[in-house]
Amino acid sequence: MKASHVYDRLQPLLDGAKANTISLAIFKPTRILDFTWEECERDWDAAKVAAMRQSASQGNLFEDEGWRKTFSLMKKLQFNFSYRFADADGRESELQVLDWEVGQLYWNCLRSTPNSERAALEKVRQKYLEEFSHRDLHFFLGTLQQFHGFSPNPWVIIGVFPIPHENQMDLL
Questions:
Q1: Is residue 17 domain-resident?
Q2: Domain hosting residue 140, numbered range
């Protein structure tokens, strides 16, 4: 079994995406600069939801149709989350986090606060910036097909992997 390469520089990933030779990677940032969010649309696009419902309403003779009875549209996350970081070359970048776990953490934090979006966002930031900065943080990166080949940076974070740090002196 071949071990995966862990990248610590963004340029080889950008070059590989342009050459269409790499679309998934493990990346270790050298320094985390910030964890941010920005508000986005609060509701799903009505036309896209209608098209999806229309498509889903048409049965398929050769598939299990049980999921259609229980399917419901999940609530839309109103924020886009991103990491700002520096790589081993000192290059600073910002990548959006598309990992479902950050969204679920936001919903959990929103329930645990008196419905304060700001307090929930600060709890998410505390976990992803402050708590994870004390770990050996790695990102699972993937490219978005619609930006592949022409975007200056088609990469997004599809998973955040905070490996716990053990101080070797504590093991003595």
A1: yes
A2: 6-171
Asked, for residue 1, whether it belongs to a domain, the answer is: no
Q: Please give the mean pLDDT across all residues of the chain.
A: 87
- C-alpha–C-alpha distance, residues 101 and 58, integer Å: 31
DSSP 20: T
20 domain-assigned: yes
pLDDT at site 85: 97
Q: Report the sign of the C-alpha dihedral through residues 29, 34, 38, 44, in that order.
A: positive
Quote the pTM value.
0.82
Integer CA distances (angstroms), 90 to 48, 85, 139, in order:
41, 9, 17
C-alpha angle with apex 38: 84 to 120, nearest 5 degrees?
95
Number of domains in the chain: 1
What pLDDT, on the 0 to 100 scale, is given for residue 112?
Answer: 93
Residues of the chain with pLDDT under 50: none
